[in-house]
Task: structure prediction
Amino acid sequence: MELFFHKKFQKQLAKLPVKTQHRAAEQLRVFVRDPFDPTLNNHALTGPLQNYRSINVTGDIRMWYEVVNDSVLFLKVGSHSDLY
Result:
């Protein structure tokens, strides 16, 4: 599985506190080992976002991604209220 990061995702991640950036990197390592590890709370989004999935970084920070063939494209990262 290859991971790709949208330019918007990279900009949003860079604006987060350093501690949260480190936590995101840790969660991405978990994701590579097991995308459905319970600590990620990996779930499908609904409605107009039904093509995307979300994983937890912290209690309020989420990362959205889309599966394209055998690749994963991370699209957005931010607080629950910012993304939804």
Q: What stands out?
A: The mean pLDDT is 95. The CA atoms of residues 27 and 66 lie 16 Å apart.
